[in-house]
Amino acid sequence: MLDRNYGWESVCAALVVTKPGLVPEVVDTALGLKGTAVDAPGQGSVPRGTVMWVYRPAEKSLDVERQLGDLVGELLPLQGALARLREQGFQTRVDVSGFVKTNSVCKLEARTLALVQQLGIPLSFTARVAKSEDDSGWLESILG
Fold first, then answer.
1. Alpha-carbon distance 96 to 1, whole Å?
2. How many domains does the chain have?
């Protein structure tokens, strides 16, 4: 479970589609979904020349396992459309992103991983370190 108890905050599960020169409307039409975010080159972690289309379910939950279940539930009927996108050179993945504190644990239940595996696309994690007041404590303990 990725939540505040494990040091994760603002956790979100999403379908990510990338391709150099990606036109967001093409993905919207192919999947019958409206992308909730589009990142262009130079924004975030998008490589130069690549556009990233992102879809997050409208239903928000603090529980990432529920988010993954909701996302997979929406995407399972679209497996054929996802396969056609991959045949056209698009890369697809399910991404779990959020802010983490130092020494955070990443734990997902096996049944959740098996659910995502049914889609036949990779699962990735994007973690950004959340700055906290005690982050420099380890350095101070070394330096004395």
1. 12
2. 1
**Helix residue spans in the chain (DSSP H):** 24-31, 64-75, 79-87, 110-117, 137-143
Beta strand pairing call for 8-20 and 123-129: unpaired
Containing domain of residue 92, as a range? 4-143
73: Cβ contacts below 8 Å, ≥ 6 apart:
none
β-pairing verdict for 91-100 and 123-129: parallel
Amino acid at 47: P
Task: Give me the residues of the chain with pLDDT under 50, please.
Answer: 1-4, 41-43, 138-139
Tens digits of residue pLDDT in 56-85: 887 776 788 888 999 999 999 999 999 999
> What is the CB neighbour count within 10 angstroms for residue 79?
13
| CA pair distance 7, 99, nearest whole angstrom | 8
Report CA dihedral (7, 12, 13, 17) to the nearest 10 degrees: -120
Nearest Cα to Cα of residue 72 among 3, 123, 9, 126? 123
